[in-house]
Specification:
Shape: globular
CATH class of the domain at 79-234: Alpha Beta
Radius of gyration: 59 Å
Structural class: alpha+beta
Order of helices and strands: HHEHEHEEHEHEE
CATH topology of the domain at 79-234: Mannose-Binding Protein A, Chain A
Length: about 230
């Protein structure tokens, strides 16, 4: 500062006036003798708008119901059923047609589906010709196997007694058959084609208690004798 004043002392009067004036201008950021000004009040910010109300959440759609599963097609039969009738009668069945009708009637009454025919032969019509020859096992209504197939059925023996009726009840007694163990007709006599109950005529019967050839080829009682029938699913 002393150096600056000394410098000024060497300056011309006109120059000094200029310097003093410049110094005043450089010092003028505020008034040296006025009360400091009060700043304006800060502005109040505007209030924010009310928060929006969110929309109600949507309800999920109800789950679709699964479609019913399709039923598979019925498979082929794995066995053929055999039963003994729950009634007895003389040999007048009205022929093999009448005997077949009796088997069908008892199967239906027991709730068995399928076609059932009688194990009954006349001299002119043997069971080996009029019945289907199954390639699957023959069984009782409770599932007991009688024979593995047709060939096994007519080979002279069977695997179990045919002594259950269509409802699964045990029955005993002899059975009108007119049929040899081979499935052929018994030719000497057939109660007039199983259309007579005459005591003067005879026909072949089988024993339901046997598993040997006697199951179908036993004795020849009078046609007036009340006996049962075997019925076989086709």
């Amino acid at each position: 500062m002393h150096r600056f004043a000394h410098s000024l002392s060497k300056t011309q009067p006109g120059t000094l006036f200029f310097v003093v004036a410049l110094a005043g201008l450089l010092g003028g950021c505020s008034s040296s003798d006025g009360t400091p000004g009060t700043g304006g009040a800060g502005g109040t910010g505007g209030q924010g708008g009310a928060a929006g109300v969110g929309g109600a959440s949507g309800m999920g759609g109800g789950g679709g119901m699964a479609g019913a599963s399709g039923m598979g097609g019925g498979g082929g039969a794995t066995s053929k059923r055999i039963f003994i009738t729950n009634t007895t009668q003389d040999a007048d069945f009205g022929g093999t047609d009448g005997a077949d009708a009796l088997c069908a009637e008892q199967a239906t009454a027991a709730g068995l589906e399928g076609e059932f025919r009688s194990w009954l032969s006349t001299v002119d019509s043997a069971v080996e010709d009029r019945l289907n020859r199954s390639t699957v096992p023959y069984v009782l209504v409770d599932g007991t196997t009688i024979a593995n197939d047709w060939d096994d059925l007519v080979d002279g023996t069977i695997m179990a007694r045919i002594d259950l009726d269509a409802s699964g009840l045990r029955r005993v007694g002899d059975v009108w058959t007119g049929t040899r163990a081979s499935g052929a007709s018994y030719s000497p006599d057939d109660c007039a084609g199983f259309t007579t109950s005459s005591s003067e005529q005879r026909g072949l019967c089988g024993a339901s208690a046997s598993t040997l050839s006697e199951w179908t080829e036993n004795i020849t009682p009078q046609c007036s004798t009340p006996l049962r029938l075997y019925c076989i699913e086709q």
